[in-house]
């Protein structure tokens, strides 16, 4: 982006359209809705920024080896080589296909070099007559020949062997000929086991979906929810995480009631509920929701099983479909901006015109169990949180919102419940401090202020 802006600002007669650039304005918190940096005391801010920068550097160092490497191919380079799709398992060996010198000039001799960067060595599985190979089983391999065809024949037998263990990293192999130099990315990746769930011989929804919820001081609501579930899905399993006191027993056939210490917290309870799911999908519902005839879980299941989506939401009450676009606008040492574009989406889900790709959706959703577990719910959020979960899913889960499945919402906020739910300014301050450090976010901003 910086290179492109530099090119656009040059005075070489260009007629430019800079408005086409996505990030047209940098991270600017002057009109932010949530100014997280204000939750940090002025006297502590510089020290916190320094500690956060150190932790961010460590984080980037951990994830950097697995990132894709920018590779720009110069069409004038007389070399053939792979630029994508080359993968090897740790301690594995892979042949490097497509290596060739495309030289039209006749020379007295030809010479190429191949070098690895960090994770392995080069070798050959066959030696070609009239081709000399130097540096076998090292990081630097040189091939010489008076015959271009012999040299190219030898290149067909070059292999790479990994000898530095990593579960997910990118090796860069450098290929040189004369003054030409190209980079070949090679992915080092552990072979993973699939995570499969047996749907049973009859492909029944009860073997595929577990309904989960978290309740707190609202037994009238949770009993109404459970009763409505039984009316439409009498045999589906329900998991209830409960940190109320005093406790009322909810255990019943196909209902598992997990009691937590009093006021353990909103996201801690969600983690507990998710941890008890043994089906491929979970359905999250709030404890004051009620199933109605439009709560057709099969419709959500059809969407998620026929797409690459990880999480599919329905509608709640009579508010209609809800969706939000969110993304990160890079900032400076003060942090980045979380940009929120409410009531907007990323487009229609192919094959499902009722569904829109989104970043943030309602608390009525069907999701892949393993996908939600991989993100989890930060137990720091004990009283209120919603956007915070979807912030954590950004770039990790594919999410959509659909309007053809609905659940009802019967709001119920008893006085004792409100005392905990409305945690006050101190709670909000602590959450802003947490986000400021953990996610390197200095503010939440509306889309229209940064377009």
From TrEMBL:
<protein>
    <submittedName>
        <fullName>Beta-1,4 N-acetylgalactosaminyltransferase 1-like</fullName>
    </submittedName>
</protein>
<feature type="domain" description="Glycosyltransferase 2-like">
    <location>
        <begin position="210"/>
        <end position="322"/>
    </location>
</feature>
<dbReference type="InterPro" id="IPR001173">
    <property type="entry name" value="Glyco_trans_2-like"/>
</dbReference>
<dbReference type="Pfam" id="PF00535">
    <property type="entry name" value="Glycos_transf_2"/>
</dbReference>
<dbReference type="InterPro" id="IPR029044">
    <property type="entry name" value="Nucleotide-diphossugar_trans"/>
</dbReference>
């Amino acid at each position: 982006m910086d290179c492109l802006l530099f090119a656009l600002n040059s005075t070489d007669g260009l007629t430019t359209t800079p408005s086409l650039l996505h990030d047209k304005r940098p991270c600017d918190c002057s009109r932010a809705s949530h100014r997280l940096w204000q939750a940090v005391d002025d006297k502590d801010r510089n020290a916190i920024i320094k500690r956060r920068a150190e932790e961010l550097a460590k984080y980037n160092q951990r994830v950097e080896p697995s990132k894709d490497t920018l590779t720009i191919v110069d069409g004038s380079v007389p070399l053939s080589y792979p630029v994508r799709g080359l993968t090897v398992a740790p301690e594995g060996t892979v042949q490097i296909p497509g290596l060739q010198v495309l030289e039209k000039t006749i020379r007295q001799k030809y010479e190429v070099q191949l070098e690895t960067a960090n994770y392995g060595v080069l070798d050959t599985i066959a030696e070609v007559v009239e081709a000399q190979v130097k540096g076998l089983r090292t990081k630097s391999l040189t091939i010489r020949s008076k015959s271009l065809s012999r040299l190219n024949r030898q290149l067909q037998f070059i292999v790479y062997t990994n000898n530095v263990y990593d579960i997910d990293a990118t090796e860069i192999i450098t290929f040189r000929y004369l003054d030409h130099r190209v980079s070949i990315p090679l992915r080092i990746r552990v072979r993973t086991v699939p995570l499969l769930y047996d749907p049973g011989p009859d492909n029944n929804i009860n073997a595929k979906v577990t309904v989960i919820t978290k309740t707190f001081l609202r037994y009238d609501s949770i009993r109404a929810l459970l009763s409505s579930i039984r009316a439409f899905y009498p045999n589906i399993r329900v998991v209830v995480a409960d940190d109320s006191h005093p406790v009322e027993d909810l255990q019943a056939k196909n209902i598992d009631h997990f009691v937590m210490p009093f006021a353990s917290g909103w996201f801690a309870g969600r983690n507990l509920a998710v941890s008890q799911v043994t089906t491929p999908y979970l359905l999250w519902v709030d404890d004051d929701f009620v199933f109605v005839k439009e709560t057709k879980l099969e419709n959500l299941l059809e969407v998620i099983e026929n797409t690459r989506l990880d999480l599919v939401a329905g509608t709640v009450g009579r508010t209609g479909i809800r969706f939000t676009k969110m993304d990160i606008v890079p900032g400076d040492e003060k942090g980045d901006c979380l940009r929120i574009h409410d009531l907007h989406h990323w487009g229609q889900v192919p094959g499902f015109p009722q569904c829109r790709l989104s970043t943030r959706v309602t608390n009525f959703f069907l999701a892949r169990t393993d996908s939600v577990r991989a993100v989890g719910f930060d137990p720091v959020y004990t009283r209120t949180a919603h956007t915070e979960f979807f912030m954590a899913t950004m770039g990790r889960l594919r999410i959509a919102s659909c309007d053809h499945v609905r659940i009802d919402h019967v709001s119920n906020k008893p006085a004792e419940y409100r005392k905990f739910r409305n945690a006050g300014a101190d709670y909000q301050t602590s959450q802003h401090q947490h986000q400021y450090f953990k996610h390197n976010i200095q503010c939440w901003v509306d889309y229209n202020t940064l377009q």
